[in-house]
Amino acid sequence: MTQIRVACIQMDVRLCHKGKNLEKALQMAEQAVLEGAELVVLPEVFSTGFCYGSMETSAETVTGPTISALLAFSGKHDCVMVTSIIERVLPASEDLRGTGYYNLGLCIESGEICGTYRKTHPFSRERQYFSPGDSISPIRLRKRDLIIGLEICYELRFPEVARRLCLAGSDILITVAEFPNPRQHVWRTLAVARSVENQIPHIACNRTGVSGDASFFGGSLIVDASGAITQEAGEEECVLVHDIDTAGTVKVRESITVFKDRREDLY
């Protein structure tokens, strides 16, 4: 595959209102597929927000109702969906850190889970509630000739995460996030930088709205392999749709040979 139409869904997330958030997300995803999107990205923990006060009810296993609804939507529309949810680990003994919860990134293709990624760098208060994942690997789609490099929010600040995903063969980098005010400049700068330094298309999907004492600026981006911003959202809820041509990555990497010129003997 060299071209795929992608959609980033920038939505407000109502804290701990799983049903309302899921309903809205699927309505917006319906709009995306009507516009021809084959790959749909939702923000970090889109169905609940960081619902720390009700973790037992907000968290789910991979067989829970939220993922089941995403599987059904993906199967019906033969599309790919990428997002994250609060995962509950059963039995808890499987979680060596003992919290019983992860921020679980997942990639669903045509009604099946084709890969998951547990956030390896929980941010600040998250560390009280989430265990960190212990591996960073891209997700290979099963039906489409495409490899997804998925990272979650705070990990945008760690260039090593994106570089590892890209060295492992990712075709598209995806960041799902709840990046809050007042850090819009940081978000925009790093989203473009991760694309430029790895010469890869990047879908950076952020939420918007207000949650507790935090507010969110949106500012979702789709960036091409040269670092050019092709789609950018403001603060309102919206669906960004764009065609990504992965063949363009080859041309960019041939014109500026960053990967060939790396000094592996030094770093």
From TrEMBL:
The keyword Hydrolase applies. SUPFAM superfamilies: Carbon-nitrogen hydrolase. Keywords: Hydrolase. InterPro entries: C-N_Hydrolase, C-N_Hydrolase_sf. Coiled coil: none annotated. Residues 4-246 form the CN hydrolase domain. Pfam families: CN_hydrolase. It comes from the Archaea. GO terms for molecular function: hydrolase activity. This is Carbon-nitrogen hydrolase.
